[in-house]
């Protein structure tokens, strides 16, 4: 029997974990909410306005394509000219692995891996994804704050204190991450000193043992953001275009539940639904669970409860989740696998040997001082 390599084993474990989360979430929903049944879902598609359904599906595709456009322009700024399909594959790899790994930890390494395979140096690919992460975090924070300004009373209408706590936590986390990124870029020494102080404290209370390992990680991250600042100083348009496409990406994601509701309730207050969904976006990003499975459903039920009855909420939840998560993950997985197989066929025999992990093989070309892509994250 062929031995399963580390990447495949990790992928299967992550998919299994997500499958368990989905199964438990669906089971809890059906046991606790008798209003939910698959017959209603079929009736929804029969009786809804197909234009809005198509709109929701298009938004799901745009969620992938806007990131692809961002990564394409980043590659161009760095002097690379990828084929149009390549950035789409980078985006689908990011979306797919982010959907199945806690805190979306697998998305960026996956995208960097394929960028490096296509000829971009691993260092520049990492910096490109770093810029994209800054745009991603800024976009989530900006959309949430704008939504709060549009109708702050909707936050007070959330019927569960814990749901409100999650929304606030999401806002604080995104603001904290954004502040940390800016701090690492412009105040690296101060961040390094603060980080080392925190490690020392955690070591004293026995929560961290290998202090040198964690100090090394902090130093590496501060160094990366410092280099990123130099790049952005020379090419400021990179950050601007990345931010625009990330905002468009998050808006398209937020529009999916809006269109799902409008498909069956054409009189629905569009802006209010957008605000509610922005709160959901804030909240489930505060939970380090693949795809926010469980957290998303909990927040959706309690945040939309101030506007709709339970039967409608559960129906809208299932349909919007179908588009925004399951279809997105399915499409991304298919595109990523297809691209991966096409690239494997084009690799020379030496690289094919590498994939069998029987020997060291040839590593992707890197620039001096740069690290090769971490294949073990795939």
Walkthrough of the structure:
By secondary structure, the protein is an all-alpha fold. It has one domain (51-347). Helix content is 77%, strand content 0%. The protein has helices at residues 6-32, 38-47, 50-77, 85-100, 107-117, 122-150, 153-156, 161-186, 188-204, 211-234, 236-264, 270-284, 295-304, 310-346, 349-355.
Q: Which spans of ≥5 residues are poorly predicted at pLDDT below 50?
A: 349-378
The count of β-strands is: 0
* Overall spatial form: globular
Helix content: over 70%
Brief overview:
The protein has 15 helices and no strands.
Sequence-ordered SSE layout with sheet pairings:
Blueprint: H1 6-32, H2 38-47, H3 50-77, H4 85-100, H5 107-117, H6 122-150, H7 153-156, H8 161-186, H9 188-204, H10 211-234, H11 236-264, H12 270-284, H13 295-304, H14 310-346, H15 349-355
Helix pairs in contact: 3-4, 3-6, 3-11, 3-14, 4-5, 4-14, 5-6, 6-8, 6-11, 6-12, 8-9, 8-10, 8-12, 9-10, 10-11, 11-12, 11-14, 12-13, 13-14
Please tag this protein with its features.
single chain; 378 residues
């Amino acid at each position: 029997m062929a031995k399963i390599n580390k990447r495949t084993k990790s992928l299967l474990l992550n998919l299994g974990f997500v499958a368990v989360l989905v199964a438990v979430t669906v089971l809890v929903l059906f046991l606790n909410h008798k209003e939910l049944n698959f017959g209603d879902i079929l009736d929804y598609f029969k009786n809804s306005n197909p234009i809005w359904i198509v709109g929701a599906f298009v938004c799901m595709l745009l969620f992938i394509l806007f990131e692809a456009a961002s990564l394409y322009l980043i590659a161009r700024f760095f002097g690379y000219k990828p084929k149009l399909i390549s950035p789409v594959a980078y985006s689908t790899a990011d979306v797919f692995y982010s959907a199945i790994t806690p805190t979306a930890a697998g998305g960026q390494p996956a995208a960097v891996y394929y960028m490096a395979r296509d000829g971009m140096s691993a260092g520049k690919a990492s910096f490109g994804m770093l810029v994209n992460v800054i745009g991603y975090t800024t976009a989530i924070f900006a959309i949430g704050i704008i939504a709060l300004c549009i109708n702050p009373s909707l936050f007070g209408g959330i019927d569960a204190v814990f749901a409100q706590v999650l929304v606030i936590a999401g806002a604080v986390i995104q603001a904290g991450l954004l502040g940390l990124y800016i701090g690492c870029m412009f105040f690296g020494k101060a961040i390094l000193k603060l980080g080392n102080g925190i490690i020392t404290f955690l070591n004293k209370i026995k929560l961290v043992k290998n202090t040198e390992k964690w100090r090394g990680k902090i130093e590496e991250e501060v160094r990366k953001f410092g280099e990123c600042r130099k790049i952005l100083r020379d090419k400021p348009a990179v950050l601007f275009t990345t931010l625009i496409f990330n905002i468009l990406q998050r808006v398209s994601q937020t529009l999916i539940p809006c269109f799902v509701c409008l498909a069956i309730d054409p009189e629905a207050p569009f802006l209010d639904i957008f605000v509610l969904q922005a709160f959901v976006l804030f909240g489930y990003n505060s939970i380090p669970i693949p795809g926010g499975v469980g957290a998303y459903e909990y927040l959706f039920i309690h945040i939309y409860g101030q506007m709709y009855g339970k039967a409608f909420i559960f129906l809208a939840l299932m349909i919007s989740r179908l588009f925004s998560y399951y279809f997105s993950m399915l499409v991304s997985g298919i595109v990523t696998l297809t691209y991966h197989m096409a690239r494997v066929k084009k690799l020379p025999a030496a690289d094919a040997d590498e994939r069998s992990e029987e020997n060291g093989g040839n590593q992707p070309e890197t620039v001096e001082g740069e690290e090769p892509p971490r294949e073990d994250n795939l």
